Amino acid sequence: MSVTEFFSVSPVYRPRMKIATWNLERALPQSVQAERQRQWFSRIDADIWILTETHLGITPGETHASVASSRPDRPSEEDERWVQIWARAGELVPLATTDEARTAAALLTLASGQQWVVYGTVLPWLGSSWQSHPAAQGQAFAAALSTQQTDWQRLRTTYPEAILTVAGDFNQDLNALHYYGSRRNKQALRQALDSVGLVCCTAGENDPVHQLINGQHSNIDHICISSEVATYFHQSFAWPHRLDDLRGLSDHFGVGVDLPEADFCDRDVAAKADRYV
Q1: 116 by DSSP, 3-state: which?
Q2: b/e per residue, 95-134, with b = 16+ CB within 10 A?
Q3: How far out from the chain centre does Cα 50 lie?
Q4: Measured between alpha carbons, how far is 99 from 144 in angstroms, rounded to an integer?
Q5: Does pTM surpass 0.85?
Q6: Quick one: which of 94, 180, 182, 245 has the most CB atoms within 10 Å?
Q7: What integer pLDDT is reported at residue 261 of this predicted model?
């Protein structure tokens, strides 16, 4: 089912989709930390997971299919990965990305025929170089973002009827008040997302971390979805529910978005996708 068909058919059938991303802080499969993380996998019960700083031995469900990035570009355990995408149902096919170490992408085809292109990422953090680019003045972030933006545009063009989702650890807040990253990187990220018709569903008034802990922190792990679908997302959420509960679990909150079963129908929405292909 194409995006056009998805928004043109009767509103009676609307598949719910829950998408979540979480940085697992390099937990090892047999650790107490990983066991606590698995408990949250069960509670959140997402349809699509984008895990970062993860391990091939940590799975959100025994029946899930996955696509992962290649070996990390840093010293690591053999099965550590920067990014791994998991899907509960449907056919998951790996797609090529330019930065094979810090990104992964997959084409998910559901039983209904609806397709999603899922792109997982870890962008450089403050003080992090990337390939030959130094961290100074956000050069590494800008270079990595530019490379990934090219991937996003290519995937938009190659799969124009699929719903594009980019998610993972962006190492940059997208709120009005500064929290982490830089204002320069924030502006560059906003422009890159807008250029391919992506809307960040976990920023601004929808930042679940900011809401959860009364503005003490902002979210730097994001889920961005094609604008023609993001308009109808139901809610964003984060876990655990208290800052203190992160101890021994992860150094990042997990975040997710819910697309409702309720009526998405808007016959004008399908046309919006055409602007980016």
Answers
A1: strand
A2: bebebebbbbbbbbbbeeebbbbbbbbbbbbeebebeebe
A3: 6
A4: 8
A5: yes
A6: 180
A7: 53
